[in-house]
């Protein structure tokens, strides 16, 4: 079982330069590209990171250890992240911090109602924003003492992880497509494409989400996204 006791001998104290030292963060995130960005943010901050790519995997993690903070994407392949947030909010002992994330900022209220301590809209690349948000979830004795410099650096994850995400969505679109599938694709791509600064795919994901929101058929939008995904997989130089 992982310990989060700040006084335990094996848990280093946070410092001004590495304010998240001693923390273990579980990222429940299905995007390899987004998780790579979070890995870099944790590395720069001193935190350890573990990843679960779906609700089922996250629940397996909690049978073995308890992280300090859980960062939960709301759009997961096997369900809604708010379900896991609600479970963790009621668990005893409760994890110190539950941070909800999504490429759709309109989901903030839903996440907070489920029991999240805070919400961040993806993409998440700012080191200072990440550090301040995580620290705000912790009690005062878990934060570094004294003044800290604000580091305005942003992280740039490896584009090979973006290609992995494109391959994942290509596989999703090859299966039987349902309304849930389309909602998942739109939400997944809205965050990941913004992180990659892929404006064409961002616009395509937005168009799909808008059609789904009003209950209209989205065959043309789905076909466009499928074509864009295949183009990115074929164009290795662009990735």
From TrEMBL:
Keywords: Phosphoprotein. Gene3D superfamilies: 3.40.50.2300. Residues 24-137 form the Response regulatory domain. SMART domains: REC (SM00448). Pfam families: Response_reg (PF00072). The keyword Glycosyltransferase does not apply. It comes from the Bacteria. The modification 4-aspartylphosphate is found at residue 73. One of its GO terms (biological process) is phosphorelay signal transduction system. This is Response regulator. It comes from Sulfitobacter sediminilitoris.
